[in-house]
């Protein structure tokens, strides 16, 4: 998509078709075109050239062997992937974790941004914002250790719940598979809500202050101003981010699932990435890992295109 | 205007110069390592990547031992240790085809060999390394891969058997204060072991204010075998991995779905029902598990000493020696001979190998360095040190250490500085006893071991009427194939798939069976067994059996 940017650059309202006007326009905007060249090259080298590596998915790939010496095996690795009993479960987990993360992520980040925006005490606002985005910079290894100790039998959650008499026996949170998606969603939210809110705060700051003043004069309450000015003002950003995130629907993350997963919750924690690490990378079966990667890319692509055209149909404009 | 142009030119010149300077530097380094062929006085530095474990990166010539070796061979190694995941790091090397001259690829050794990353050492050893050849003589055939080539040299060529004084292998540990309180009982069977735990836990529901945990287990990530290896040990087999080998027929059998495993899990199920099994056994990570051991609230556990070393050393350093743990060789029932101590055995992989891309001349220099280490004098130097400094020789030729020497040689600082830390293991090394009767490793020399015991150790040694802690353990029977787990498994084979699958199955099903209501255990076991039967067990057994038979036919440790 990025490669299309030179053609799609914003143009003057009088659009004319045909090769000549196109060349003319190119000439007019050659400075801009030259500026895009490095990025086009970058995209080509890092995003398009590696697609050649997809051939590995159809081989029994052995490292350090020339391309011509590789053994071709057709769809063997895809068959292995799709016929494995666990694959459906793994796919289910990936989608469920991803959807939960996405919904929670959006709602909390937007809510957070709106709330921070409504704060009038600048100092307090800054402190809240800093604290909320600090966990984003923690590595998952550290974050997972924190989560696991908070959730352990003598962890703080159990102590608080016991103290409030909400439960009468400590719960082994990570030992109950059904809870895993929720725990993951909560952990992701804790870690990323502040960070994700930044872009919405930026969107809010773009909103014309006069609108608020006008609404105030018309007698709109604070809540009404949020509903009728702030949120509509963020709409375009929300939609762009939503479409992009839908493209990552099969990327539910790897570290938290790998680090918090265990035998008791494996049926809910194992997602595609963890599966690929176990059966692909760890076993030096790069071909299987590539096949799984290809599968993910194709699904992501379909979702992205679908979301984009749906959004266009609804008159909201799309990514491209 | 002109000035500006000049400035610009000057900038360009500077840039060019900088680039030239950098490339010059590189060329300079190169010549350092290759152009010194004339005399051995010139020192050559090679890169050595060691994936066996994290440690400080160092040049070997910064240690006392390394300096000596450098003076004698003209070779210095710049050692880089693994940080992070081995497969990933070695995978990158394989993909790029760029290796350090000397490499220990640990569990990824087979992959490097498959990718042609190691050069065959057969001729190098034959022509340039008489000492290596002598030390590894009986095992050279074992070191050969299917194609007849030797690619790596592993540490620890067995020369006779020296029984260790302290357990470094698997055992059933019980906290010393528990033993003391119950009048020093000596459990022999699984039932007796858990009776002790039950008795103590019932009498002491809390330890220092925290709930007493009867029995815990390490199940985190790849360490899951610390819960799945027990059936084999309880039935009287040494640690061969996921299989047991019949002494007569030398056939390897997977035991994960056999009666002995059922028996072990059923016992754990009952133990759990009595509230003695740690509820967090399957959710805790490695650190939390170690912390639990050091916390003092854990009555007992099964593990290998080398896995819990960190926790054990922490406990040993504090004042209270009743917090330490003591290990027992537990079996299913009386009459089974325990085999917890490793038999004499040779592990052909992992080991260090010279990588492709190293010039022939450099290969010779490296193999000569390794050969120098294989000399008997050097061998004594890397384990015992210097006579008069780190050990004494008695009139009848026995090696001993004084208390000061024991303290000195166990201080990390001294070990780093002298080079024990870097040379003691991983390089060509023999194991067992020297021809003069002294143990290769000082802690295995009875005279030294005896001195190393403190007041707390003595109390328990005396209470059980033993001289060393391993006296409770039986001598290992000869098993020339040991350990069976070092069998190379081909990448992409059924056997490799089996290993991953069986681990996944156990990780998923063990908690279900152990935490099940006792009335439901049987059905849970049947379910597990059914799933187990769908794995390519035969393919795996076949690969291991073949390797066991091959090894048994090549060596004889009698």
Automatic annotation (TrEMBL), chain B:
According to the record, the signal peptide region is 1-20
Q: Which Pfam families match?
A: SBP_bac_8
Q: Lineage of the native species? A: Bacteria, Bacillati, Bacillota, Bacilli, Bacillales
Superkingdom, natural source:
Bacteria
Q: Which UniProt keywords are given for this protein, alphabetically ordered?
A: Signal
**Alphabetized PANTHER family for the sequence:** ARABINOSE-BINDING PROTEIN-RELATED (PTHR43649), DIACETYLCHITOBIOSE BINDING PROTEIN DASA (PTHR43649:SF12)
Under Gene3D superfamilies, the record lists:
Periplasmic binding protein-like II
The molecule here is called Extracellular solute-binding protein
Q: Does the keyword Signal apply?
A: yes
Q: Which PROSITE patterns match?
A: PROKAR_LIPOPROTEIN
């Amino acid at each position: 998509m990025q490669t299309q940017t030179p053609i799609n650059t914003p143009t003057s309202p009088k659009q004319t078709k045909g090769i000549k006007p196109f060349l003319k326009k190119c000439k007019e905007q050659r400075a801009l075109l030259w500026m895009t060249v490095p990025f086009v090259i970058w995209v080509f080298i890092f995003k398009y050239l590696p697609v050649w590596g997809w051939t590995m998915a159809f081989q029994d790939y052995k490292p350090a062997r020339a391309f011509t010496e590789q053994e071709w095996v057709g769809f063997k690795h895809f068959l292995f992937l799709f016929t494995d009993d666990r694959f459906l479960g793994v796919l289910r987990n990936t989608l469920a974790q991803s959807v939960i993360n996405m919904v929670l992520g959006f709602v909390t980040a937007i809510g957070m941004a709106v709330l921070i925006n409504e704060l009038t005490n600048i100092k307090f606002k800054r402190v809240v914002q800093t604290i909320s985005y600090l966990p984003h910079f923690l590595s998952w290894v550290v974050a997972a250790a924190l989560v696991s100790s908070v959730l352990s039998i003598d962890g703080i959650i159990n102590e608080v719940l016991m103290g409030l008499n909400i439960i009468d026996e400590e719960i082994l949170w990570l030992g109950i598979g059904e809870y895993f998606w929720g725990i993951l969603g909560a952990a992701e939210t804790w870690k990323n809500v502040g960070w994700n809110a930044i872009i919405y705060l930026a969107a809010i700051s773009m909103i014309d202050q006069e609108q608020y003043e006008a609404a105030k004069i018309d007698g709109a309450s604070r809540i009404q101003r949020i509903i009728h000015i702030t949120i509509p003002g963020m709409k375009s950003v929300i939609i762009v981010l939503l479409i992009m995130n839908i493209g990552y629907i099969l990327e539910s993350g790897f570290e938290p699932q790998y680090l918090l997963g265990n035998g008791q919750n494996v049926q809910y924690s194992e997602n595609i990435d963890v599966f690929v690490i176990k059966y692909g990378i760890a076993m030096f079966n790069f071909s299987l890992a590539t096949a799984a990667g290809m599968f993910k890319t194709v699904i992501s692509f379909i979702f992205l295109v679908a979301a984009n055209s749906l959004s266009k149909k609804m008159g909201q404009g799309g990514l491209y | 205007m002109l000035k500006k142009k000049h400035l610009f030119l000057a900038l360009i010149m500077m840039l060019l110069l900088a680039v030239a300077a950098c490339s010059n530097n590189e060329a300079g380094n190169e010549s350092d390592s290759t152009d010194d062929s004339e005399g051995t006085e010139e020192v050559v530095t090679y890169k050595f990547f060691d994936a066996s474990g994290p440690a400080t990166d160092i040049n070997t010539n910064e240690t006392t031992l390394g300096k000596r070796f450098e003076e004698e061979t003209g070779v210095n190694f710049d050692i880089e240790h693994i940080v992070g995941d081995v497969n990933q790091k070695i995978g990158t090397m394989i993909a790029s085809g760029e290796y350090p001259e000397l490499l220990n690829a640990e569990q990824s050794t087979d992959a490097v060999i498959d990718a042609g990353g190691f050069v065959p050492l057969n001729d190098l050893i034959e022509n340039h390394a008489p000492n290596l050849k002598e030390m590894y003589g009986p095992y050279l055939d074992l070191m050969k891969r299917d194609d007849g080539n030797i690619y790596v040299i592993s540490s620890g060529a067995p020369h006779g058997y020296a029984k260790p004084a302290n357990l470094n292998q698997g055992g059933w540990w019980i906290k010393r204060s528990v033993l003391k309180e119950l009048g020093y009982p000596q459990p022999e069977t699984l039932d007796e072991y858990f009776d002790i735990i039950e008795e103590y836990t019932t009498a002491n529901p809390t330890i220092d204010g925290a709930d007493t945990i009867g029995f815990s287990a390490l199940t985190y990530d790849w360490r899951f075998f610390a819960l799945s290896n027990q059936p084999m040990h309880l039935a009287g087999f040494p640690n061969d991995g996921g299989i047991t080998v019949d002494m007569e027929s030398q056939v390897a059998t997977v035991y994960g779905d056999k009666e002995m495993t059922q028996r072990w899990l059923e016992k754990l199920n009952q133990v759990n029902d009595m509230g003695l099994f740690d509820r967090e056994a399957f959710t805790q990570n490695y650190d939390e598990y170690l912390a639990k051991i050091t916390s003092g609230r854990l009555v007992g556990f099964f593990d290998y000493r080398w896995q819990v070393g960190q926790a054990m050393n922490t406990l040993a350093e504090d004042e209270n020696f009743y917090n330490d743990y003591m290990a027992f060789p537990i079996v299913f029932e009386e009459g089974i001979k325990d085999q917890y101590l490793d038999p004499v055995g040779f592990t052909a992989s992992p080991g260090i190998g010279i990588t492709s891309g190293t010039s022939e001349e450099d290969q010779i220099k490296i193999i000569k360095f390794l050969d120098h280490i294989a000399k008997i004098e050097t061998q004594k130097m890397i384990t015992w040190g210097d006579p008069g400094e780190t050990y004494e020789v008695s009139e009848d030729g026995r090696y001993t250490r004084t208390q000061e020497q024991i303290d000195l040689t166990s201080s990390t600082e001294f070990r780093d500085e002298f080079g024990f830390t870097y040379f003691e293991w991983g390089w060509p090394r023999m194991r067992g006893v020297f021809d003069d009767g002294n143990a290769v490793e000082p802690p295995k020399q009875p005279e030294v071991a005896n001195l190393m015991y403190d007041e707390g150790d003595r109390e328990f040694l005396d209470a059980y009427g033993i001289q060393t802690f391993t006296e409770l353990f039986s001598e290992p029977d000869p098993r020339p194939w040991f350990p069976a787990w070092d069998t190379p498994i081909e990448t992409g084979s059924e056997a490799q798939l089996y290993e991953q699958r069986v681990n996944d199955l156990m990780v998923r099903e063990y908690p279900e069976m152990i935490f099940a209501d006792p009335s439901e255990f049987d059905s849970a076991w049947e379910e597990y067994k059914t799933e187990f039967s769908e794995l390519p067990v035969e393919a795996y057994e076949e690969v291991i059996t073949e390797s066991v038979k091959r090894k048994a036919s090549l060596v004889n440790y009698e």
